[in-house]
Design brief:
- By secondary structure, the chain is an alpha/beta fold.
- The chain has 3 domains: about 220 residues, no CATH class; about 230 residues, 3-Layer(aba) Sandwich (Rossmann fold), CATH 3.40.50; about 250 residues, P-loop containing nucleotide triphosphate hydrolases (Rossmann fold).
- The chain contains 33 helices and 14 strands.
Length: about 750
């Protein structure tokens, strides 16, 4: 049972019991206030969730009507074991179940041969089918279809989402307070006065004193954990004024995962349990489900399959988390780390490719209360000393792991290796360094989105780091029997879920912002472009030196992961030289590029060949050439190499893949560089988009002129160039410092963060 103050030091054992009736009255009054606050929060939370349920029911009912309109009236026989004669209904024009549902029993019994009893049975049968349809209808939130029912659902969810990640913890504290104080307060009441104690008898007095002492302990623990403030703040958040439709939609587009997580919880939209648990054997699944998962130090809610993944890492101790791209492996790792921190563990280490190092830093500090330390770069020595002294999560690159000094002062509680397929070759230095750290760490979590059943030998090598005893049992014949058979065979060490198995209610289009860092060489090119006032050169400076380009490295990673999952990819850029750089980096293994100089026939020939290719393939295109007029529904991953001056150009490009005929969810990855022209463009365009949403989103003018959201390129360029020149203290024509690009980072560039929207 959760206790008030769960996760904090329990102060009850040292709390003195009140000794006088006056002290008891003060104590019990304080306890009654806490109990009232707990009950108020529970009521506010229940009311907010009931609002979501009502909105959800309305949305499901509307969605189900379309299904009912396609069900012939003859299906009513299935519900009534064929007892109904439906010929009269069909002759009267009642062709579908929806027709029956929209009629009244009285209207039905007016038909020749239909009595009151038959009319009631027919209408009840239609209602039974309608309820079944509502229970099974898919729940989708489509930003391009802002109907009244979906808007009402988002407004209802907004109240709970904006209450923040502390709301679940406040709810548990409220339930614990009600349970504990609800039992203790009645028993403690005689201690309020000497007369009542006298009349209570010996046993009554003893029970009253014990109950009062218990109340004192509960209040002390609640005070130590900040429960009163937690409860009051949560209630205030739940009672804020209802959001407007524009505010709710804007917030949803900013952080859709929070809405979907909450919706899945309230609407019981979680996927099939067996699929969500990676088809593990029952004995392992049961052990994982029994594993506790403390969320005191976590700042994000988890989907059911994500919580299971974190529990799997904790229960099995040394594992590979192989979820398909887009399922939140990083969040699952952070959840496991936060649980261990709550239990007293203090030192954790993440080793990852340089391209995701900054992403890990930001994710740790935004998704948990833990501090992250960057053990890479010029300040790594100071960061290492601080990490050793205070604990937290150290983040370094796989390639520099061998240089990280070990110290007897630190007992490592968990090692996380991201993109673990990079250490598949045991002969490499990076793999040997990982092996050494694994050997002295009790808990190890490898993460990779590449399906291991397609690479059995690589999998054997990874298992060798974690569970050498299992290596002889990893057989190619298990993989040959299919993905599920393979996963069951290696279940003690491997968990993988696919998008189609666990994201059953997500929209068909998921937008992802990928933030990167400049490499030193690219930063030098960027500063030079800013000094020259060259807006176009600023926009493509992140690709100036392909060998060290963080954005280009991320393109290659996305392509590689898509290849591992057999997905087709389209890469868009405004600039021909950027498309060419991607083409060269892929060693020519791509269709295209499509550019403005190609005829329509030549473009279509390339698209047809791309679509006809079996399995994975990559198509390259300038966005202004391939973003219009071509159907690219063979692709399920879209990469936009830089933000566009006209947001409509991005949406049109994404729409080439996300259209009728697409059978998989489409992921659109937009690559951005922090503290650069990219960030300035988004700030300006988002401000304009908010104004547009407020005044014109639903007007006929807005619908007929999508370019209304766009902004003059010349105006945007002038503003951004001036801002960047001021920020970097570069007057027009100022050359960059001589050492701006000196030296190359030993492990290449780094990526900042990925934000789903």
């Amino acid at each position: 049972m959760d206790k008030v103050g769960h996760g904090e030091t329990d102060s009850r054992s040292s709390t003195p019991a009140p000794s006088t009736p006056e002290e008891v009255r003060v104590l019990l009054s304080e306890a009654e206030r806490l109990l009232a606050a707990a009950r108020a929060l529970a009521a506010d939370d229940a009311a907010a969730r009931a609002g979501v349920q009502r909105a959800l029911s309305a949305l499901r009912a509307r969605s189900a009507r379309a299904d009912l309109a396609a069900i012939p009236v003859a299906r009513l026989k299935d519900v009534t074991d064929g007892r109904l004669r439906l010929g009269t209904l069909e002759q009267a024009g009642y062709a579908t179940v929806l027709d029956i549902l929209d009629a009244t029993p009285y209207a039905l019994q007016l038909l020749p041969g239909i009595g009151a009893r038959t009319a009631a049975q027919v209408h009840a049968a239609a209602g039974q089918i309608a309820r079944a349809a509502e229970e099974t209808v898919a729940v989708r939130i489509d930003v391009d279809r802002r109907d009244a029912e979906t808007t009402a659902l988002l407004i209802a969810l907004h109240r709970l989402v904006t209450a923040g990640p502390d709301l679940p913890r406040a709810g548990r504290a409220a339930r614990a307070a009600q349970e504990e104080l609800g039992a203790l307060l009645p028993a403690a009441q005689p201690a309020r006065s000497r007369l009542r104690m006298l009349l209570a008898g010996r046993d009554g007095r003893r029970r009253a004193r014990e109950a009062a002492a218990g109340v004192a302990g509960v209040l002390a623990a609640a005070a130590a954990s900040g429960t009163p403030l937690l409860l009051n703040q949560a209630s205030v958040d739940l009672l804020r004024p209802q959001a407007s439709d524009i505010e709710a939609w804007a917030d949803f587009e900013l952080r859709p995962p929070e809405y979907y997580n909450l919706l899945a919880e309230i609407a019981a939209l979680e996927p099939d349990r067996v699929a969500a648990e990676g088809f593990l054997p029952d004995v392992i699944s049961a052990r994982v489900r029994a594993q506790e998962l403390d969320d005191v130090h976590r700042r994000v809610s988890l989907r059911g399959y994500q919580a299971f993944g974190a529990r799997f890492a904790l229960a099995q101790r040394r594992v590979i988390l192989g979820d398909e791209m887009g399922l939140g492996k990083t969040v699952q790792a952070i959840a496991a780390i936060a649980h261990l921190w709550a239990g007293g563990a203090r030192h954790f280490l993440v080793a990852c490719p340089a391209s995701v190092l900054i992403n890990w830093m930001r994710e740790i500090e935004s998704r948990s209360t833990l501090k992250a330390y960057r053990l890479h770069g010029p300040d790594r020595g100071a960061a290492l000393a601080e990490w050793v002294r205070g604990g937290g999560v150290a983040v370094t690159t796989i390639d520099s792991l061998h240089r990280l000094p070990t110290t007897g002062e630190v007992t490592l509680s968990m090692l996380v290796v991201d993109e673990a397929h990079y250490v598949k070759n045991p002969a490499t230095r990076r793999s040997q360094a990982v092996a050494e750290w694994c050997a002295r760490t009790d808990r190890v979590l490898f993460m990779t989105g590449t399906p291991m059943e397609n690479r059995v030998e690589e999998f054997r090598n990874l298992v060798g780091h974690l569970r050498p005893d299992m290596v002889p049992g990893v057989r190619g014949s298990d993989a040959a029997a299919g993905a599920q058979a393979f996963r069951r065979a290696v279940a003690p060490v491997y968990l993988r879920r696919n998008q189609e198995d666990v994201l059953t209610e997500l929209p068909d289009l998921v937008m992802v912002d990928e933030w990167e860092e400049f490499s030193p060489a690219d930063l030098a090119a960027y500063r030079a472009a800013v000094a020259e006032g060259n807006f176009m050169a600023m926009r493509r400076a992140a690709y100036a030196v392909p060998r060290t380009s963080a954005k280009l490295q991320r393109v290659l990673e996305l392509v590689e992961e898509a290849a591992g999952n057999g997905l087709k990819v389209v890469v868009f850029s405004y600039f021909r030289d950027v498309v060419s750089a991607v083409h060269q980096a892929l060693d020519g293994r791509a269709y295209g590029p499509i550019s403005g100089g190609l005829s329509v026939t030549a473009r279509q020939r390339i698209v047809d060949a791309f679509g006809a290719a079996r399995g994975h393939a990559v198509l390259l295109s300038q966005i202004q050439a391939g973003g219009l007029g071509l159907n690219l529904q063979a692709a399920s991953v879209v990469v936009i190499c830089e933000p566009q001056v006209k947001p409509t150009m991005e949406s049109q490009a994404a729409g080439r893949a996300h259209r009728m005929g697409q059978t998989r969810k489409v992921q659109v990855h937009r690559l951005l560089t922090a503290d650069s022209v990219d960030q300035r463009m988004l700030d300006i365009l988002r401000a304009k988009a908010r104004i547009f949403d407020t005044y014109a989103r639903h007007s006929d003018l807005a619908e007929s002129t999508p370019d209304a959201i766009d902004i003059s390129e010349q105006t945007l360029a002038r503003q951004i160039v001036a801002e960047e020149q001021r920020r970097l203290a570069l007057a027009p024509g100022t050359p960059p410092p001589e050492d701006a690009g000196a030296g190359q980072p030993p492990e290449g560039p780094g990526r900042v963060t990925r934000t789903c929207r």
